[in-house]
Amino acid sequence: MNNALDDARRLMRRAQADLNALRNMDDREKFDENIYGFHAQQAVEKSLKAWLAFLGRSYPFRHDLGELLAALAAAGEDVEDLWTLADLTPFAVQLRYETVEADTFLNREHVAAEIAALILRIEQAMK
Question: Total domain count for the chain?
């Protein structure tokens, strides 16, 4: 197995672990928005990087989901339906320095479903 495919599979295992964590964070009193948002962002970031690795493309060692989506689009992948996930970027970047103040709460069920669909899409492509 080549290194790129090994990397993609490793990243997908980590993305799945973040998704599993999200599925157990429904209680807003136990898991505030920043903790949930961080794991959501991480699941998406790792998934998108895995996709790029699978395609044999390098990926940036940054946390900007928009940058990763743009790299996938430049590689010829259809990511139009994924751009809303880029809204999770502040949970990785700002969280390191301050609390992300959201005007509205994340719809946790919807976010988890979107991430699950992304992970499934990439896993199917990798088969």
Answer: 1
